[in-house]
Amino acid sequence: YAVFDINGYGEKIQYASVRNVTCICYNGKGPIHADSGYNDLSSGGTIEVINCDLINENTSNMAHYNTGLACGLRDGQRVVAKYVNSNSSLWAHNVAPLTSYSGCAFELYGCRFPNTMIGDVYCYGRDKFIMHNCKLNFIIFDQSDPFNQKRDYFKYSWDIDLQNNEIGY
After folding, report:
1. What is the pLDDT of residue 93?
2. Which end of the chain has a smaller Cβ tally under 10 Å, C or N?
């Protein structure tokens, strides 16, 4: 499924850290996957990925899973990547009930990767995307509604903080 999958623990966790490793994924979601209520929802929770190489070697039949780090954030969760190198995307989306705020954070510092995609699933706001001192080709902001939630109100959810990055286009 993934080299390191937070969901695999079977229990909610408050904090996890992956440091100083190379993760290579063949025919899975990607080297690191964090989704589906992986941590303690009562007080958020943090996943750190520090000084890692995330290599996605998916074959053509798995081309839609082209991520090095994939995150589905909800209820105050925070993912922090520092000095991560990847041959594929660093990607996050948020999820919250239609009437609440998720208050999540996706933070990238000093990372090198081809692109990042930030998705708005069905949130109402208060999420943070921070990217400082990174090098990448492009950023995608996706406001699609993959669950076909018919919303009578939509507010783009991410507060964006970009500083000192090299972005190709």
Report:
1. 82
2. C
